[in-house]
Every structure is written in C-alpha cells, then in structure tokens.
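Hey,
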Amino acid sequence: MAGTKKAVSTNEPKLTLKQRLRRLRIEMSTANLKIYGGITAFFYTLSMSVIQNGFMGAQSYTQEELSDLMANDPNMMLLGTWGAISQLIGGLAIPVFAFLLVEGFTRSHDRRAYLGRMVLFALASEVPYDFAIYGRVWDMRGQNVLLTYAICLVLLYGLSLFTGQKGARFWVVRIAMILAAFFWVLVLKSQFGLVTVALVVIYYLMYDSKGMRLVIGAAVSITYLTAPLSTYALWKFSGEKGKLWNKYVYYALYPIHLGLLGAIAYFLAR
C-alpha cells in the first residue's frame, strides 16, 4: 500500500550490557596521559599559588596562625578546603609523570637530547616556580619538579648501562645510584622528589611486569592520598603515542602556567 513504511529487518543480535561496555573500552595513549597529567597538575599549582598565596595570603602567617585564622573565619576555612581539594586533584599527576618519564626514556632515540631538554626547561621554570609557590622571584626553599625529572633521567641512564647484568656487584652499583638520586632530590629539595624517584625505579626495573609494577607503584604513591587512583589510567595505557602538539610547546606550558598563576596570586595578595 502506497505511503506505508516497511520495517527494516536486521540480522544483528541485540547487544548485552556487558558487550556494550566492552565496546566502550577506554585506552590511554601517551598524549592522553600527558593531557590528564597536565590538567591534574594544574590544580596543585592553583592551590599553592592563587588560593593560598593569593586569596589566603598564607605567606604572611605561620602555620599555627593560619590554622587559628581558619578556625575562626568561615571564609578562610572555605578557601582552605578548596585549596586542599585542589592539592588532592594535583596528587593524581605524580605517578602519571613518573610513568611517562620511564616510557619516554625507554622509547627515546636520543636520550641525551631528552635529558638536555629536561634540564633546559627545569632552569627556565625555576624563577616562575618560586614566584608562583613562594611569591618571590628567587627562593631556595624548594625547586621545581622538572629538576626532579632531570635527576631521574640521569638515574635511568645509569641503570640502563647495567641492563641484563647479573650478580651482586652489579646490584650494589644499582643501589648506590638509586641512593644517590634520593640524596640529590633531598639536598636540592626538588618537588615530589622522593616519591618520584621511587616510582621511576619501580616502573623501570619492573618494566616487563605490568600488573606488579603498577600495584607496587600504587602502594608507594599512597603517601599522596589520591595518587594511587591514577593506576587505572596507567593500566589502560595502550603504548600508542597519540596526537599532541609540538613537544616543545608542551614543555613550555609548565613555566608559562607557573608565571601566569604566580602573577594572579601576586595581584590578589596586594
């Protein structure tokens, strides 16, 4: 009959909920992890600079004075709460960047260039870091996280020289290099130093044991409460590079965001 529509038959079976969930399988490329890590890390700087230094003026108080002020001022308590939440979000980035550092090192065709790039941007980021975190253009109370990564790359290069070597004397050398890395991040007070070195060692030495290294890494990173939650993102790592902007632009975003947030905090505190 004209004008009537015939039902379109299909031989495709109806998918179950479990099958639909499988089709929605999430996989993380290197680019995805970098974006995830960059966004979460941004919240940590936001907390330390804009919220604490800018709105709260934390640099003007001792820790005891600030605690008393928060206890007696609801607005300060609210700001402190938002600052704490932002830091918890920022903690998610710690294992991600340690993981990416190991992946970048093992896959790099020019490890010297990789280290040189990290050192260059670590130096370029120090003044913006001090400005954002301490409200000064130069402060030796702590150094930026790229310095931690540079120390880790030197450690990875040293460990790679003994790949496949067995015997007690080789393990003595490995342990000495690991202890040296811990020593330098402590002396230089570089950001997230101890936990990052520990994670890099675990992710590198247990590279072929995906599940075990992630489980142990999660246990180690629990010193930053939310950090183990990123284990799921690392588990879904596909090994693909993915598409991201120029690597130099990605590195440059670190000192740029520090400088911008530091400037905002400076004007808020005035």
